[in-house]
Design a protein that fits this description.
Blueprint lengths: L2 H33 L8 H9 L26 E5 L5 E7 L2 E8 L2 E9 L3 E7 L5 E8 L3 E9 L2 E5 L3
Antiparallel strand pairs: 1-2, 2-3, 3-4, 5-6, 6-7, 7-8
Length: 161
Amino acid sequence: MGRRSILVATGWVATAAIATLIGLGAIRLVGESLTGTPGGVRSEADIERALASPEPVPTPGPGTAPATPGTTSTAPGTTGTAPSASSGARRGFATDGGTAVAECGVGGVRLVSWAPAQGYRVRDVDRGPDDDVEVTFQGATREYELKVRCIGSEPVSVADD
């Protein structure tokens, strides 16, 4: 084998290795942007464990704040409560369009966090603090509006006026 053949083979192997590395990097980059969730998609059991944990769990997405300990969301229209050291009680609310966490405090009720369900987006948010707060989840064919007020020191979902 001549010197030229060895150079051609070495160049070919180097080019193949570089192309493979670039391809793997591109697949990793595109794969993460397709899932839209850093760290992958989480199961319902993972989410329940994270919500039950004593440490705050970050809620990804613009306009959202970390979830807080003691906040629970179950079936649409049901709620769970837990006291907060900084202000009144916190409560999670769930609709088919998304979920939200609200708390009552000195200035009234305020939305702590909100997240649309799959296939929905947040169309409008009034996060407070105020007499009432609301978040609207917009889907392709349906819209859900969640309105919350403080009754006593507890956040409660109310019908829109």
